[in-house]
Structures are given as C-alpha cells and as structure tokens.
Amino acid sequence: MKDTDLYSRILGLSDPWFVADVELDTAGGRVDVHVDHVAGVRWRCPTCGRELACRDHAEPRVWRHLDTCQFKTFLHARIPRVECPEHGVLQVRVPWAEAKGRFTLLMERLIIDVLRECATVSGTCRLMRISWDEAWNVMDRAVRRGQTRKKTTPARYLGIDEKAFRKGHDYMTVVCDLLGGTVEFVAQDRKTESLEDYYRQFTAQQLERIRAVAMDMWEPYFKATIKHVPDAAHKIVHDRFHIMQHVGQAVDKVRRQEHRELLRQEDERLKGTKYIWLYREENLPDKHRPTLEALKATNLKVAKAWAMKESLAGLWNYLSVGWAKRFMKRWLTWVRKSDLPPMRKVGEMLSRHLDNILTFCRHRITNGAAEGLNSKIMAIKRRACGYRNREHFKTAIYFFCGGLDLYPRQA
C-alpha cells in the first residue's frame, strides 16, 4: 500500500480530500502529511450551508496529529474560501479539525483524555510533547465548547458554597448541582452580586424549576436567592453540617475558656480533650470513651455544652416541620437559660434562621455534594501548586468538575 493511501485511510479522508504527499524526516523525528482536494468542487458556507464555488485559498495551515510511532505527525493543507452573499468571505470547514484549532480532532481528544487523567497541565505537556500554552488552549477551548452545549436550565437541587482562592479572605462562589455532583457556576467573591450573576442567566419560568437550595447562613447568598428564586423562603435549606459546625465551635470555645480557668487552679482535667467533645457520641473511638464518661459525670461547663450539641443532632431525624419546631423551641430555651455565653450566642443565630433550618424536614438536602466538590477543587489547586490567575482557576474547575461535554466533533 502506498504511504499516501495509508494516511488517507488513517485520517479517514473522503472525496474531495486526499493525501497528496508524505514526507518523513527521521533526523527531525517528524512526518509531514500534505492534504489536497480535487478541483471544481462546490463548498458549503460554514454559517448557512449554501453551496458555493471556491473563491481562493487561505494561507497554508499546519495541524498536529497523533504520533506515527515515535515520530510527531503534522498535517498541511490550504483551506478553500467561499464568498457567501449573506456572510461574506469565509474559510470552509475541514473534516479533520475544528475552526482555529492547532490540533486534529483525534489529537485534541487525546490531549483532553490525558489532561483529565494527569489532572495537571505540566504532566500532559511532558507526555504529549506539547507546550504549556498549547495544552492550556485545548483545556480552555474544551470548557467553552462544553458550556455552549450545556442546557440553559438550572438544576432542581442547588448547593451554594464558597471556596478560598488564596489566603487573606479571597473567596470564590461555587454553585453546584446536588444530584448531578457537578459545578454549575463559579463567580468571583462571595457577595450578593456574585450569586445574582448565576440567577440572571435564567428566565423567571426557568427559575421556578428550582425545588430547593442548600447553603450556609451567609446573608449575601440568602438575599440573592430570595430576590431571584420564586418562593425561595420555602426552598432555602440551611446546611445541617454548617449548623453543627457552628455549634461544635461554640462547644470548643466553652472548653477553652473553662480549661484556662481550671489551669489557674492547677487542674488539668481538660488537657488534650479537644476532639473528644467534637465527636458525635456514636462516632467516638473506643479508646476515648472512658475519659468522656468520667468527664461527663463531673459538673463541667463543657459537659453541659456537649450535651446541648448532642441533643441538637436529634433535630435531623424529624420529618414533620411542626414537631421539629417544637423540639427547637425547647432546645433554644435550654440554651438561652444556660450560663454558657458561646452557646447562647450560637442559639441566637439559629433562632434568627430557624424557618430555613426547619425546611430540611421538607427537602432533606445538605451541602455534602458541594463539600465533596470543594475537596476535589482543593486537590486540583494543590496539584497545580496554586493559580495566580483567577480565570485559569475557574477554567480548571469547569474542566474537571463541570460535567461538560468537552470533546470536539467532526464537521
């Protein structure tokens, strides 16, 4: 078989395209494949599809293709141009590459696969023998391609959380699909406007599709959702894990205050007990149980705070909003009458947000999927040794966590 016929079959070329010549440069480690077309062909306008005669040809283009054994392979061709009465002079589409691409479709698909497996641009560059700019350009094109194809409707169950971009209270807002486990939107900062940019993409009818939104008690997110989502007051669910985190922090503050007081009396009972009080009782390792039982039997303030924390965990078992509200009123009264300022403070916060804490009984969603995605985002950031450019970080999040259709398609 001739080398031209071999590469025509390998490339999947069909009339009017054919391989005119193949050059092998063993010293340079490359194969150059020259593609041409038969004369007298009528080409379709890439915008409207109208068949037109060839006007002229663009300057010769080069595309990187899959390697031939150990040799880099490059395609060369001059792309015909047509003059459409409606859209002007345009280059026709070629079957082996997308418009303005540096790689053939097969090569670009392989680079995307390697990027997803390596999870780093630098590793992909070494394996594929391409530059950092070339690899990043493929990632950026893939994300823009995927976002164009994505359905313009919001997910039914949303999770909203923040993600630190760098130290110093520099945050990004991340919106995810709780059922699909994908990142839907990334915005700079964690202000009301940050989340509003997501909601403004949709019509009022599309926003009605949202059934519930899980978030922490951050006021800007609450305001943006109330403003844009129909009946949001009954759809916002304050995440139970964030709530228990706040209560756990209050328990730890009680422990630290009491530990300082006891140390003045040369009493070290609370030394090294931080995590004993933060565990759920059923999750406490067996080796710590004797210590906890001994401390619970004393009249320690932290033991009272711990009992309040353990009691609050029972809220999440209720299915009826009415019964859950009765439970919370009793719990808040207990906390309010206690002599534990950190617990009273967290009780006041929960009282202010009580209505949207109780919506958990109706929707039973948490931000667990969002937290899982946050861990994945942190791993992406760590493998890349951080991102100086915020837009590059957003692109990487969409690429690895967006659930997008990233691959190019044949013209």
Average residue-wise pLDDT: 93
Write down the Rg: 30 Å
Strand content: 15-25%
Main beta sheet strand tally, sense and closure: 5 strands, mixed
Helical proportion, percent range: 40-55%
Principal-axis shape: elongated
Please report the number of helical segments.
17
Strand order, largest beta sheet: 12-11-10-13-14
Q: Between the first and last Cα atoms, what is the distance in angstroms?
A: 28 Å
Secondary structural class: alpha+beta
- Count the strands? 14
What are the low-pLDDT stretches, counting only 5+ consecutive residues below 50? none
Describe the structure.
This protein has 411 residues and is an alpha+beta fold. Among the domains are: 3-146, no CATH class; 240-363, no CATH class. It contains 17 helices and 14 strands. The protein has helices at 3-11, 105-118, 121-128, 132-149, 192-199, 204-207, 219-228, 240-264, 274-278, 289-296, 301-312, 321-336, 341-352, 354-358, 360-363, 368-383, 390-401, and strands at residues 17-25, 30-37, 42-44, 51-53, 56-57, 61-68, 71-77, 80-84, 88-91, 157-166, 170-177, 182-188, 212-215, 236-238. The strands form 4 sheets. Strands 12-11-10-13-14 form a 5-stranded mixed sheet, sandwiched between helices. A 4-stranded mixed sheet has the order 1-2-7-6. Strand 1 and strand 2 (30-37) form a beta hairpin. Helix 2 (105-118) packs across helix 3 (121-128), helix 4 (132-149) crosses helix 17 (390-401) and helix 8 packs antiparallel against helix 13. The longest helix is centred in the middle third of the chain and has 25 residues, at 240-264. The model has no long low-confidence stretch (mean pLDDT 93).
